[in-house]
Design brief:
Layout (H helix, E strand, L loop, with lengths): L1 H25 L3 E10 L10 E6 L4 E4 L2 H5 L14 E9 L5 E7 L11 E10 L2 E8 L12 E3 L5
Antiparallel strand pairs: 1-4, 1-6, 2-3, 2-5, 5-8, 6-7
């Protein structure tokens, strides 16, 4: 009977550890992310802009509709007007490492030549995390492809 009791106790401890581990993963710290896009002299895309923020060692944040899911300037705001600053924000699990690259994508035809981005600034705030990163596009650099990539050399 004592052997059955120690096996049951061991099984209970293993199950309790498994439940604790799953709950700990669910309770991952949340961070507030804000992205500010500074545009140049021509109007940019209107819908379905996709942004991927890559972090050192491979974590990333990937959104398929940054205006709909992150848009922080209200439902009636027109994003990406010439010479404007547009804010986007979201609360997601914290990415532990610094962002090192940004990739921008859009529907075919959305990222037309002559749409300029001056820079994109991303801030991350959470419990013990307060980071700020600006990705600068070349001055007067036209977006010429569907997926322009800007990195800062920190990505492995």
């Amino acid at each position: 009977m004592a052997k059955l009791s120690s096996k049951a106790s061991l099984l209970f401890l293993v199950l309790a550890l498994l439940v604790f581990t799953l709950k700990a993963q669910e309770m991952k710290k949340l961070c507030d992310y804000e992205m500010v896009v500074s545009t140049g002299p021509s109007r940019g895309p209107s819908t379905k802009l996709r942004v991927i923020l890559d972090a050192i060692f491979g974590e990333n944040i990937n959104t398929t509709d940054v205006i709909k899911r992150w848009g922080a300037m209200g439902p009636r705001h027109t994003y990406f007007l010439p010479n404007s600053y547009d804010k986007f924000g979201v609360r997601l699990p914290c990415v532990e490492q610094n962002f090192c690259a940004i990739l921008i994508g859009g529907k075919k035809g959305e990222l037309k030549p002559h749409w300029y981005i001056n820079n994109i600034t991303v801030s991350t705030k959470g419990d013990g995390i307060d980071r700020f990163k600006t990705f600068r596009f070349l001055s007067e650099h036209e977006i010429e492809s569907l997926y322009p990539f800007i990195g800062d050399g920190e990505c492995p």
